Amino acid sequence: MNKSIVFLINKSEITAGTRGSSLGPDAIMTAARKKGSFIFGENAVEKLRSVNDLLDKPTPYRFAKRIDGLNKVYDILNDKVSAILNTNSFPIILAADHGSAGGTIAGIKSAFPDKRLGVVWIDAHADIHTPFTTPSGNMHGMPLATALNIDNTECKVNEVDEETLAFWNKLKQTGSPEAKVRPEDLVYIAVRDTEEQEDAVMNRLGIKNYEVADVRNRGVAAVMAEIDQQLKACDLIYVSFDVDSMDPELTSHGTGTPVENGLTPEEAKAILLHLAKNEKTVCMEIVEVNPCLDEKVNVMAEVTLDIIEEITQQLKS
């Protein structure tokens, strides 16, 4: 494949409920230096401007916390990701929290407006809430709703003010005024912690979730063959990997919202390597490493580095 790789560092952590994921990319780079890995010296590294100063001020947006700042992050990612893709390079994004992933998807669509995009979302959480359904207001639970251009008002529990709604509609329109992903082109792996509003919209839209038990009992190869078949009509694939998809007992609790009974690191690596081999895959994103919560002293970053090294080797082979 011999891809020209660009590591894109996004430290904005304004969409999560816990602090510290902004240190995740540096924790991974520290793990590389400790190991003697030169992966970040041998490939291009670009850093995005952070908007974390917003964490030092209250937010007036109860059901979409710091959505004003997230609009800026989406715009930054839309511009940068599309620019990288337009140079025929492969962006591997190391992001703080998962809320910015909708901006990544927007950037892919901006670079390839006429291409059909498939998304493989590897995560403990569905991240398909909207301001109308969120129980927390934390926007790392909403990026896929922006990509799908949905509100899920069928499950509405919150009354959303006009200013929040204007920001929300702008997020959905970043990169394209239409939906950037079709429901049938979205596949979940390892999702196991959802709210009823998410379950309802997933069922209504027919979004497939391969549970950990599916991966464990059927094997990675069988599951990935089925995903390949589902996404065969797609021109491009984006892969989003939240480290909380892995079992915290086998890694660490060094992530914002760990959930038990996740993937093994070996299963996660096998899934990601399969996707890295696919010529349709144009971008991969790794999120939610939080060294402030790591009871094993940066083990989550070390596990993640091992996966990133093998992905990079695969892409450059």
UniProtKB/TrEMBL annotation:
Keywords: Arginine metabolism, Hydrolase, Manganese, Metal-binding. GO terms for biological process: arginine metabolic process. Its cofactor is Mn(2+). Binds 2 manganese ions per subunit. This is Arginase. It is an enzyme of class 3 (hydrolase). GO terms for cellular component: cytosol. It comes from the Bacteria. GO terms for molecular function: arginase activity; manganese ion binding. Mn(2+) binds at residues 98, 123, 125, 127, 242, 244. Pathway: Nitrogen metabolism; urea cycle; L-ornithine and urea from L-arginine: step 1/1. Belongs to the arginase family. The keyword Amino-acid biosynthesis does not apply. Its EC number is 3.5.3.1.
